[in-house]
Amino acid sequence: MTETPQPRRARAEIDLGALRANVRTLRARVDPHVQIMAVVKADAYGHGALRCARAAVEAGATWVGTATPQEALALRAAGLLDVRIMCWLWTPGDPWAEGIEAGLDMSVSGLWALTEVVEAARETGRRARIQLKADTGLGRNGCQPADWPELVTEALKAEAQGLVKVTGLWSHFACADEPGHPSIAAQLDVFRTMLDFAEKAGVEPEVRHIANSPATLTLPEAHFDLVRPGIAMYGVSPAPEVGTSAELGLRPVMSLKASVALVKDVPGGHGVSYGHHYVTSGDTTLGLVPLGYADGIPRHASGRGPVLVDGRVRTVAGRVAMDQFVVDLGGDRPAPGTEAVLFGPGDRGEPTAQDWADAADTIAYEIVTRIGARVPRVYLGE
Ligand SMILES: *Cc1c(COP(=O)(O)O)cnc(C)c1O
């Protein structure tokens, strides 16, 4: 285990030991034949894609998933070679040929994408690995049931010509984070029907998959051959009603910390930060935390975000600015440089990413994912 480094302005500590443990916990919750795809899109939800992908593979993930082909290609270029990588958010003109050369599994949701990937396969002289995506009810990406027969038929024609191999059939849930939501069973029904059609037509997929984190945790009948956890791998619950991290046996991976930059005495009636939305109620002390919305601290959490400083949880006083915000220390005088913990696992009295999500009317996914590039990531447990 690496020593915790000295505090700087701010840092996001990424506990790779916790990430590995979370992957093992997820592994233990699925049948032994079910593979794990570690979802590391958006720089691993702000945690660092390459290191998180490597840690997940060490802990038993056999696939890695990204949204864009650029994210997937960057992982291959960085040397992540010993694992399948799938990416699903393609835009016309994207680098299909590079994807083929890199051995990516490339999602195809419609005929335009099939046309482009077939063209790239002709150019490169190599067979493309494609996974057909079904829109089973999410209404976002994926092929509608009415268009599925044509997409499957055209993909099989390209497969017969040796241009593609259909390696997967897959879909995505709309409401898996609301256990019992009627759309869940409805989507599973549609998925089974679409799988059945494709398999009867002659597709022999290596993997069929639909489960994100909440479905991995709550819906064994949705596991099929592979599950695609993202947020759970980072130790954050997909939604409070699915359970807390602790209840799910998961440990939050990211801790966001800063060094208090200034502590000072102010009189009562003093306005604090832009707009003076906070005014001190009497003589007090203020602490300056050098993190702001440029670092991903939601401005919407102005007056509400929680921060552990000097043994107590304080509240953001007034507006979150671009680079800094203030907490009212209520007369306490910790030394400048004292650690301020915005969020972490929560077992040392510090707030969690979910607490910040509640303060900012959003979801914990957005809190961790938006932590900005200006905040250095410090890796523990490499
Ligand atoms: C982001 C994403 C996931 C992971 O979702 P979580 O809720 O974080 O587990 C899985 N599949 C697809 C297609 C995604 O876009």
TrEMBL record:
InterPro entries: Ala_racemase, Ala_racemase/Decarboxylase_C, Ala_racemase_C, Ala_racemase_N, Ala_racemase_pyridoxalP-BS, PLP-binding_barrel
Pfam family, any one: Ala_racemase_C
GO biological process: D-alanine biosynthetic process; peptidoglycan biosynthetic process
Record carries keyword Isomerase: yes
Active site: K41, Y274
Signal peptide positions (record): none
Binding residue positions for substrate: R140, M322
Entry's family note: Belongs to the alanine racemase family.
PANTHER family: ALANINE RACEMASE, ALANINE RACEMASE, CATABOLIC-RELATED
Protein name per UniProt: Alanine racemase
Organism: Streptomyces showdoensis
